[in-house]
Specification:
This protein is α/β, with parallel strands linked by helices. It is 38% helix and 24% strand. 42% of the residues are buried.
Length: 344
């Protein structure tokens, strides 16, 4: 008897990789949805009793889905599949009723073992259990390169967030990455920064590798620098004397972890320059003065990290030069067509 399976993820690349990672001999009927509301509707309609659920999505996120499944006592067994690998994220989803948590990028062998452990799947005698499933309806569509970029940025963001959360002993709310191709002059208007009246400080670090180059910018609201210094364990007199040190430390941690995870997924390595302070106590527009760039266009990835319970928010921007876009698209093309868990 076929098992109804719902794959819920806002990324078409993630949905495709999830479907390909399912065991080939597991008889399933797949339903693909892009957000939490559609997922709940599919469960209520009886289209799946097993749900693979992403956490960070626009609208109703994975936490909301788990809460509603529990509240309505919906007939669904939920496995969270996410790039948010913070220990607290794992604990929270289990408290909300998830069967288990599987980290992205998905490993078909881990997935098969997890399904077996909960009695959801038994491998056939004549077929290896980790052989990837044939292309399912809806999973063989071409993935736009921007969507592939957003998904690998999502996974790298989760790895950077996890490192920072463990270091500071906090929980970090992670966004859906924003990907835009725009003129340098449009950068400020494209930012998802709501508090533009405060003064900001910024740090930049250049990166380069395999024909892909750019700059990472960390933008931080000055109102919370002292709190950040305390979380980093710096002496109070040091934070008062020089508020750029915690920003440079934070930049090294976040940018380094992000680029490491970003490059690993594409089998690339990036060199990273030392952090340089762009300015302190400035208007956000002054920090992002486009005259510092010779590029006509940039590819921008924006990530807004929020440290829960401390009201600390910082914006991490990855800016890629226009010459970097072709080699980046080539790497993403291979990645979106690759079988999960199989390297080149």
């Amino acid at each position: 008897m076929s098992t109804g399976v719902i794959i819920c993820d806002d990324s078409s690349m993630a949905r495709k990789q999830m479907a390909r990672a399912l065991p080939a001999d597991w008889d399933t009927t797949l339903t693909f949805v892009e957000d939490g509301d559609a997922c709940l509707e599919a469960i209520r309609d009886g289209r799946g009793s097993v749900v693979f659920l992403d956490l960070n999505m626009p609208g109703s996120d994975g936490y909301t889905v788990l809460e509603q499944v529990h509240r309505e006592e919906l007939p669904a067994l939920v496995l969270v599949v996410s790039g948010d690998i913070q220990p607290e994220a794992y604990r929270r989803v289990l408290r909300l009723g998830a069967l288990n948590f599987i980290r992205k990028p998905i490993d078909p062998q881990v997935l098969a073992q997890t399904l077996k452990a909960y009695g959801l799947y038994s491998p056939s005698e004549h077929q290896p259990e980790v052989e990837p499933a044939p292309a399912a309806a809806g999973s063989d569509q071409e993935v736009p390169w921007q969507d592939a970029l957003q998904e690998i940025a999502n996974i790298a963001m989760g790895q950077a967030g996890d490192l920072l959360a463990r270091l500071l002993n906090v929980f970090i709310r992670l966004p859906v990455p924003r990907v835009n191709t725009l003129a340098v002059s449009e950068l400020r208007m494209a930012l998802n920064i709501t508090d533009s009246t405060s003064s900001w400080s910024g740090v930049c670090q250049g990166f380069n590798g395999a024909g892909i180059a750019g700059e990472a910018l960390l933008l931080f609201n000055n109102a919370r620098v002292e709190t950040l210094s305390q979380l980093l364990g710096e002496p109070e007199e040091a934070s008062t004397r020089n508020n750029t040190e915690p920003l440079m430390d934070l930049s090294s941690i976040m940018v380094g972890a992000f680029l490491r995870g970003f490059g690993q997924q594409m089998d690339r390595q990036f060199g990273l320059s030392h952090p340089v302070v762009l300015g302190t106590h400035l208007d956000i527009s002054d920090l992002l003065d486009g005259s510092q760039y010779t590029w006509q266009q940039i590819l921008a990835i924006e990530l807004t990290y929020t440290i829960e319970s401390h009201d600390i928010e910082c914006d991490l921007l990855l800016l890629f030069s226009e010459e970097s876009i072709p080699p980046l698209r080539e790497a993403l093309s291979w990645l979106s067509d690759a079988t999960p868990g199989v390297s080149a």
